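User: Hi! I have a protein structure encoded as tokens and I'd like to know what sequence might fold into it. I'm fairly new to this, so please keep things simple.
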């Protein structure tokens, strides 16, 4: 009886240079996501950890699955084949792929072939034959570089047209793919992927680089400038989150076409990232460049229809100039990218030209990153604790852990002086891990002294959204013999309201563990009361910017009163931050806030000072 092979757990991902998933095919039910939900995500977000027999990946419902991952590189794309761990998964792919395919064992003998492969050779049975018998010359499919396509080039089969042959190497088998060159389908796909963005059909970096240097030559000849524009869509992630990745792709395609319509044929536009574009234009004067920039912004900002709704989107644009800012393509792209972040700092829909101060700032950032790495090794960081005091009992019920850097030359450095330089990179996770572990160690010390309070730890969005964050917290608590309710993870409103799959997954895991969440700086971001009502938030911290003017600005006073009322109606503890005077304290007492934090009671204290403060406050003589 012929065995039937079912496609179960086989997924093919195409990734861009940033590791974002740009195309998905296969059975995505392995993850519980639709193809649209997977597109645009970082592939690394799916990975929990590597294990001996493959990788552990996270599904949509928070569960994990063991998978076997195989990666190849086609031009500037990375293609990842991911399979559930079952013996027939390779056969499943061979049977379902549209081109000729064979499965070959370690002796290069064919153990399985699909119908297309049989037709490409002869009507005779090819199972059991070696590749050297089937192809004109002996081919070794087990070379280490075999993940580069095409591996073996073009072969003319007996009485058949020429065939393109390439392979993927696995532990026990090789999958060999064959396709008639006459159809050119594979070759055309490879060429397209090498030189054009699959979604927008815009040129890739390869063509972009050539066009930039062509413009340099023309500019020198004609006495012109070349402007490199680095464009990023503002808050594009919200479109994917609020609608879908399919709608996000539609927006990208629409934006690309609108930009093309505003440019001349001699100009070049390339998509270099998820929602990032590089534009190359020549002009005699800077004012002409600004005119083009404004036209591009205006075209992009026109409403876009997404189903029954219309949305508007803005863009931030950074500009570098040849020869003023440099003479190399990558250098100018990088400088335009730096200028784009300068534009974003101004607000949405702005543009900015590169200047040398950006490079100076970047070098300062690099220096600080290096110093932070050394600081972690030399144990220069220290946690200070600012007490959180119950409004009714005036006793300490908790504390916020605040990191300080004992710099050997600069003295005590506050976090706002160094965290911004690392909050988007891997260092923020190292600092975050140190903070959680240190807070747990000092919590253990408090427990040993019979001091029963909670400690809140600030967590960056980058760290919180990493797979394995909840497990990190769990292990730190376990090492220090603490209960989950002893530690509170403090997030900014913006992090919690992002509502990304990674954020949801981590929140779900922490809630399952019993670790409480505190929402910091409430009222300063994009408040979404629906999420506040549905997510397991235990503490609501009212930002000090409202408390500061609670006595002088009636609107701020009413906002604070409303926040406290909201917290009470949802059963959430409310904490007022930045309380500095007795009058503020009395007003908050009138509003029935649950707890306060600020210099009125105490500044942030060293660990030893904090223990002494608790003893004096909670156990007065």
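Assistant: Happy to help. Inverse folding works backwards from shape to sequence: for each of the 621 positions I chose a residue that suits the local structure. Here it is:
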């Amino acid at each position: 009886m012929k065995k039937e092979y079912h496609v179960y757990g086989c997924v093919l991902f195409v990734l861009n240079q940033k590791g974002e998933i740009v195309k998905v095919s296969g059975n995505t039910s392995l993850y519980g996501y639709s193809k649209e939900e997977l597109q645009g995500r970082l592939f690394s977000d799916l990975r929990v950890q590597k294990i001996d027999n493959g990788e552990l990946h996270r599904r949509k419902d928070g569960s994990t699955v063991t998978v076997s991952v195989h990666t190849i590189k086609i031009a500037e794309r990375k293609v990842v084949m991911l399979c559930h761990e079952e013996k027939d998964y390779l056969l499943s792919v061979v049977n379902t792929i549209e081109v000729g395919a064979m499965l070959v064992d370690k002796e290069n003998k064919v153990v399985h072939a699909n119908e297309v492969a049989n037709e490409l050779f002869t009507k005779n049975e090819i199972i059991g034959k070696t590749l050297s018998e089937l192809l004109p010359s002996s081919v070794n499919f087990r070379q280490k570089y075999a993940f580069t396509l095409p591996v073996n080039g073009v072969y003319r089969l007996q009485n058949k047209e020429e065939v393109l042959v390439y392979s993927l190497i696995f532990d026990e088998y090789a999958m060999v793919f064959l396709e008639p060159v006459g159809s050119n389908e594979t070759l055309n796909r490879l060429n397209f992927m090498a030189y054009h963005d699959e979604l927008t059909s815009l040129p890739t970096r390869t063509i972009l680089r050539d066009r930039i240097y062509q413009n340099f030559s023309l500019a020198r000849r004609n006495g012109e400038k070349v402007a490199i524009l680095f464009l990023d869509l503002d808050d594009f992630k919200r479109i994917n989150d609020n609608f879908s990745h399919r709608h996000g792709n539609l927006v990208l395609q629409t934006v690309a076409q609108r930009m093309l319509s505003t440019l001349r044929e001699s100009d070049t536009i390339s998509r270099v990232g998820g929602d990032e574009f590089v534009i190359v234009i020549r002009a005699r004067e800077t004012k002409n460049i600004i005119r083009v920039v404004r036209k591009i912004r205006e075209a992009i900002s026109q409403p876009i229809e997404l189903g029954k709704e219309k949305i508007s989107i803005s863009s931030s644009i950074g500009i570098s100039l040849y020869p003023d800012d440099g003479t190399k393509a990558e250098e100018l792209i990088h400088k335009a990218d730096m200028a784009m972040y300068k534009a974003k700092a101004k607000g949405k829909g702005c543009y900015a030209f590169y200047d040398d101060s950006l490079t100076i700032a970047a070098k300062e950032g690099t220096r600080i990153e290096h110093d932070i790495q050394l600081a972690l090794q030399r144990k220069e960081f220290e946690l200070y604790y600012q007490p959180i005091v119950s409004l009714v009992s005036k006793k300490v019920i908790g504390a916020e852990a605040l990191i300080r850097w004992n710099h050997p030359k600069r003295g005590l450095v506050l976090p706002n002086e160094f965290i911004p330089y690392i909050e988007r990179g891997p260092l923020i996770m190292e600092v975050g891990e140190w903070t959680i572990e240190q807070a747990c160690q000092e919590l253990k010390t408090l427990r040993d002294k019979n001091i029963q309070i909670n400690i809140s730890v600030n967590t960056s969005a980058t760290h919180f959204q990493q797979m394995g964050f909840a497990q990190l917290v769990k292990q730190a608590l376990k090492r220090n013999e603490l209960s989950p309710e002893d530690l509170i993870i403090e997030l900014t409103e913006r992090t919690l309201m992002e509502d990304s799959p990674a954020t949801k997954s981590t929140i779900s895991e922490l809630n399952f563990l019993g670790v409480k969440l505190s929402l910091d700086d409430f009222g300063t971001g994009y408040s979404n009361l629906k999420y506040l009502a549905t997510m397991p938030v235990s503490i609501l911290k009212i930002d000090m910017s409202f408390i500061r003017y609670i006595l002088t600005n009636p609107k701020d006073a009413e906002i604070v009163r409303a926040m406290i009322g909201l917290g009470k109606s949802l059963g959430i503890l409310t904490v007022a931050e930045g309380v500095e005077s007795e009058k503020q304290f009395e007003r908050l007492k009138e509003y029935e806030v649950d707890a306060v934090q600020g210099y009125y009671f105490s500044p942030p204290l060293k660990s030893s000072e904090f223990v002494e403060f608790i003893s004096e406050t909670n156990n007065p003589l």
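A useful reference point when you look it over: The radius of gyration is 30 Å. Feel free to ask if any position seems puzzling.
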